[in-house]
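sorry to bug you again but im stuck and you know this stuff better than me. what follows is a protein written twice so to speak, once as letters and once as structure tokens for the fold. id like you to explain what the token line says about the fold, in plain words if possible. anything you notice is useful, everything is just below.
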Amino acid sequence: LIYAGTPDFAVPPLRRLMEAAGGGNGDGGIDLVAVLTAPDRPVGRSGTPRRSAVKELADVAGLPVLEPETIDRSFIRQVASMQPDLLVAVAYGKIFRPCFLEVFPRGGVNLHPSLLPKWRGPSPIPAAILAGDATTGVTIQLLAEQMDAGDVLPQHEITLDGTETTASL
């Protein structure tokens, strides 16, 4: 499989997959062939490029890291040459076009931090807090052409007590 993610939120699921893969080498029945993440971006006033949280973990684990500016035909061919079966996405930040998803015979799944269909899009955690929701959760869904529109698979509900922050939740 190929794992696609970028921010801190995407690190724990990657760690779990690495554990299931025997540290990333396939010994656990999962062959984690690469990590797809956003390229290093300038941060702060200095404009110093910063690696994504997912890239930091992948580098430590010795996993190949893919950082395309765009998912173009050349990149799709590169990914296809790895012969991945499945794409696992967690807060990657881009919508995958059908021509990219076709590379994965088993398709793709996405972990989304809300109880879909509520709070679709890139900021579901702050949205749930600002709305004063009594519950929220996470959803695993099939990847689709539109953001957060795929079939819903398992969901896990979390009760909120009103003291949560985006970071703590």
